[in-house]
Amino acid sequence: MDFLNHIEKAQPEIISTLQELIAIPSVKAEPAGADAPFGREIARALEYVLAWGERQGFTAKNLSGYAGHLEYGTGEKTVGVLVHLDVVPAGEGWRYSPFSGTVADGKIYGRGAIDDKGPAVAVMYALKALKESGVKLGKKIRIIFGCDEESGWRCMEHYFKHERKPDYGFTPDAYFPLINSEKGQMALKFESEVASDGTGVILKTFTGGTRRNVVPEEAEAVLAFPDQEGLEKGKAALLAQGIDGIEVLALPEQNHLKVRAQGVPAHGSTPELGDNAVTKLAQALAPLEGEGSAWAAVRFIRERIGRQTDGRGLGINCQDEVSGALTINLGVVRTEAGKIRMEVDIRSPQSADHETLKEKIADHLRPYGLKIAEYSTMPPHYLPVDHHLVQVLLQVYREETGDWSKPVATGGRTYAVALGNGVAFGPGFPGQPETAHQKDEYIAVADLMKCTRIYAKALYALAKEE
Known about the structure:
Layout: H1 3-9, H2 11-22, H3 40-56, E1 59-63, E2 67-72, E3 78-84, E4 103-104, E5 107-109, H4 117-133, E6 140-146, H5 154-162, E7 168-171, E8 174-175, E9 179-182, E10 184-193, E11 202-208, E12 218-224, H6 228-240, E13 246-250, E14 256-262, H7 277-284, H8 293-305, E15 319-320, E16 324-325, E17 327-336, E18 339-348, H9 354-365, E19 371-378, E20 381-382, H10 388-401, E21 408-410, H11 416-419, E22 422-424, E23 427-428, E24 442-444, H12 445-463
Parallel strand pairs: 3-6, 3-7, 7-22, 8-23, 9-21
Antiparallel strand pairs: 1-2, 2-6, 4-5, 5-24, 9-20, 10-18, 10-19, 11-12, 12-14, 13-14, 15-16, 17-18
Helix pairs in contact: 1-4, 1-12, 2-4, 4-12, 7-8, 10-12
């Protein structure tokens, strides 16, 4: 396979292209014009990859900044690869600047390195290698670049209103050997009115998290005590619990304290891998709990969300053999404009009924004065192991790695759902640490190159001339 030689020679170029793409801080922002619906930086990332493709001789198309594609080859059928260019916020505490693309110890660091800019670049150079080697293809290959994967998928909604779906394909946005089962997803917002009612310690604010689908790394609450004596007793009660990651800070306002919780971020689809700072803070505040609607909301977090991630406090814990157990992540809490608001991400097994889960959640919210303010859902996705696409990709992966692991299920939601006739295929290899959505996100250079080889072989196997 001559195209593999092209890949090896391109390693310096592959690394530099990824560094340049990482350097674009493509976090979702307010619209910045007709061709930048998700902000200027995401639009710039899309313009970057499409310009790269045009220089390689691919057909490029920008669909009003929502998404775009690069296409190569001819034929009636199309093999699609769906990637995304948007990234979650970087957060604090990085070893290297999150948008520098620093190479150190054989790794490329940066927000998006593994999710999903590294895989996008791997697919781009896989396609370039096929073109440069002159292999004969019987189908078109189209790389589709989404720009709103991390928050709403409006990119795919817009794209497939204007473009026909590829006949089949994959998204490099999960793990190897491949993901053929993806859980359903529920996105919910809870809210309640907050007043300075009640007596005792007043909860002025409770805030934490950045995105619904990210386990919160930090959370903080501001408390007002009746007097200095109460403040000292409250501080002692907080610290006496010995909860790791809890910090108590004095404030200039008389008889006020700030309580800060430090957690460990993780992807919202695997909340068990993180340490939720919001639920930790709710637990820590238990000895100080007073009366009123604000405290009722915190009590809900402690009693009904809790430190577990399986939804048992809401009576929604369930599982099945195809996709595993339900997970829940409380990703955002805000106290503002007289209300406390929460954003929750639930990943549900194939057998779960979303309306039934919603009803159970609503029943548990009511006693705490909370209600469901917004609700959306996405169905599960599944392709059987004997499906032709699954078999071809498994064969390619096994030949390259010698690993005969079986396909797995995930709580993550990937563009395979939008594609329909598709699966998630890499880039994470078995046994590797998960760094997506975390500080010091990286992709190893060796893995980036291995992914590029695998994707080139996969595209060739799926699109070669019959």
